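ok so heres the complex, two chains, lmk if somethin looks off
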Amino acid sequence: MRITAIAYLSWKALRHRPFRSLLLIGTIALTLYFPRALQEFISRSEEVLSARARSTPLLIGPRGSSIDLTLNALYFTPQELPPLDYSSYETLAQRDLGNTIPIHSRFRSGNSPIVGTSLEYFKLRALSIHTGRSMTRLGDCVIGARLAESKGLKPGDTITSSPENIFDLAGVYPLRMRITGILAPNRTPDDHAIFVDLKTTWIIEGLAHGHQKLSQAEIMGSSRNSAGRILRANASVVEFNEVTETNLGDFHFHGDDGNYPLSSVILAPSDKKHRALALASYQDPANPQQIVIPATAVEHLANTLFATQRLALVAFSLLGIAALALALMVFLLSFRLREREMRTYGKIGATRLAILCLQGAEVTIIAVAATILAQIGVTLTRVAAPDLLTRLIS
Amino acid sequence: MLIPKFECTEGQTIALVGPSGCGKSTFLNLIAGILNPSAGSIYIDTTEITALSRAASAAFRLSEIGLIFQEFELVEHLSVGDNVLLPSYLGTRKDQTVIEERARDLARDFGILNYWDALPESLSHGERQRAAICRALSVRPRLLLADEPTGNLDPVNKQKTLELMHSSAKEHKQGLLVVTHDLELVHTFDAVIQFEEINQHGQK
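and the predicted structre for the whole thing:
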């Protein structure tokens, strides 16, 4: 019996029962897909996490979980640790150990993190502006390529920060930010982020604000005290929720800027000696700050992921065996239901081997189709892993 | 069952009649090589099919014996055309191209060419049986064995089916052995044999 004839007859049999065939292909494909996709996802995630961690030499932040600190600085996950004082950053910068880059990633706009930083961050991550220009003043922002694409944003548009608690009347008001540039895509969490100057995040925090001039005569209800020196504003004073060229001069900061918050500081030591000095200076357990080597923190995280993966693989394997046994049973039952057809083949003159070949070909076609489908899924998972990881972590 | 002697010559048509359960179908299966006798020999031309291995017997049947059944035995998921070409797909030793051409010619002659791509379920009983006969004749076998081929057909289709088998047998000098209960139709055969007569005593 010719192999083309076997394939043709088997294909006809499978096509006659499309629902059963597709169900079998789907079941087997999923059984093959899950364990391999998990392996691929974790392996690719480990590569991506490690690559980003390796490009971040050292990280200084408040004492606590080194993984939380690393993920917050690398993936802009919600801030779990208390903030770092700006004075700590200034002290570190004055020590001249290397390049210091502040990160303040407490706020969000929808699901996108707002990252307050300096222009040095763009150099560290090799981020380039694809469209528009860099931020030049308070209230300006540069956004990641994927965010721009998903929201249809372009330079000149605005994006507003999300209030942390909509029922807190005394809380932080949303700030409308002007988009000045779109970054070139680089398939990292930076693609989904909104980058602003550090001072802009302090406006969102409420540490700086802008409002109508209280000296203006038309502001009803403003009053001077008896000495006539202190001007007391009331609710009629309009507070600006957007920095514009006109009101830029009206924005001002309150309090001691040394107490202003940061999430962490990236330190890129100028050489090995300065790296050793930096590491040594945070060894004191009484120090409220810690220094983290992101690559080491990510390695710990990866080890945890691999341990979880092993457990998941055992579970998937058991489920897979059960699913394959069910698929085998479906085949056997199907062949039993088609016994008369097989008997007809035999009566006409098909050998037992030819009939077995026909049955085997049906199983093979289903298995090959399922394997191809699973492989496509695994490849797509591998391609999508960096974005998926960013979404999962963020 | 004991058949001391039975013979069907080239182009001869024989109707085998007898009550249900007397062994007529078993006898056809023995001739076709589907079943093996406990003793004795069956020859088709010069080939002793009882001496062949199971695989060789199947291969011989595929090329040299055309089988027609009461229930048509068409494969439900194959089109009429594919059913007719089934012996070709299953690996008959005869020329595939010739079989395919002949199959189409037969389908045209039998009036089922319009249903070539249709599934058997869309055909009437008569058309299905004609498709089954086409399948049996497509390899141009030396022997045609039919087990109650008209059992499920109306009188018009019965007549037509028998005519088709007879004309093929005469034209191509094929032996035709038909098991039937239908005594009204047996007068068209060269010989009518009561199965009980040949069982135990053999063909006279």
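quick notes: Chain A is about 50% helix and 15% strand. thats all i got rn
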